[in-house]
Amino acid sequence: MNDLSQAALPDALGAAEPIIRISGLEKTYAGGFHALKAVDLSIRRGEIFALLGPNGAGKTTLISVVCGLVNPSAGEVRVDGFDSVRDYRQARSRIGLVPQELTNEAFETVWNTVSFSRGLFGKPPNPAHIERVLKSLTLWDKRDNRLITLSGGMKRRVLIAKALSHEPRILFLDEPTAGVDVELRREMWEVVRQLRDSGVTIILTTHYIEEAEEMADRIGVINGGRIVLVEEKAALMRKLGSKQLTLHLQAPLDAVPASLTGYDLQLAADGSELIYSYDGAEEGSGITALLGDLDAAGIAFKDLHTRQSSLEDIFVDLVKERP
Length: 323
Ligand SMILES: Nc1ncnc2c1ncn2[C@@H]1O[C@H](COP(=O)(O)OP(=O)(O)OP(=O)(O)O)[C@@H](O)[C@H]1O
Known about the structure:
Organism: Franzmannia qiaohouensis
Number of strands: 14
Keywords: ATP-binding, Nucleotide-binding, Transport
Protein name: ABC transporter ATP-binding protein
Mean pLDDT: 86
Largest sheet: 6 strands, mixed
Distance between the termini: 42 Å
CATH class of the largest domain: Alpha Beta
Strand content: 25-35%
GO molecular function, one term: ATP binding
CATH architecture of the largest domain: 3-Layer(aba) Sandwich
Domain ABC transporter: 20-249
Helix content: 25-40%
Number of helices: 10
Order of helices and strands: EEEHEEHEHHHEHEHEEHEEEHEH
Low-confidence stretches: 5-12
Bound molecules: adenosine-5'-triphosphate
CATH superfamily of the largest domain: P-loop containing nucleotide triphosphate hydrolases
């Protein structure tokens, strides 16, 4: 997909400047619902940013404001330096928006649908660009097919092709793999990675923690209209990813023996499991010492397993703790 990279060259700003800068954003809908609260967020050029949040958290509202489809109540959004309200056309032309579903175009051909989308942005026809986009999404052979004849995966790729038709630098993907099977999900992930490699900045919303864990360079969590966390994915996993060792005991215990109180131990499953929590990133886990002390206390176990807390645990904790 390298031939799409020209679409991603920064122009208005230097390469180090965030491609999207959101400051002090507020949105209160006409009915009085306060959907976005003091949102500050910068998106870096060329990254994949995953926006995670439960239903009703404000993901779609945030994307809609950035795309200029919904007016903010306060604050501002700059897209490649352009204000999303005052310089709407300039800002919007830099963004491709991939919705979840195709609408009402079942009998059109792939080529016409994608070319038409470009026209909506007032761009002159550019068959060479449309050809590049279709080839990069392996839709070239299907260019004369009507959409109704395509598989689910191809239809999703047509949505991306439409969004790329006007050569945007930024691509928003709204729940790109909602309701698709595992194979198609992996295919979509590969397409998104290739797009990022071609220089397009990707922002995706998802309910699937696994998707964020697999794809994102950075992860943002929105809850109740507030951004409650923005972190490098790797740092997030390191910082918050504690580990647990579960020991399945041969004989149940009534209580954790006094000689083991120095460890962070919990007794579970009616006393037949001891759970030891430790920091997976630390040098010494303390496991060797614990096993020695268990032996000294005459506690035998029949099995053991370890578990690393996942992004899902982290996410659930965040959303629970900060309503
Ligand atoms: N046009 C509107 N008028 C009034 N309230 C709205 C409007 N659009 C959205 N809301 C409310 O704003 C809140 C955030 O909605 P939004 O669609 O942004 O959430 P979301 O995070 O995208 O949710 P989901 O994951 O379910 O799509 C919700 O409580 C919703 O009911």
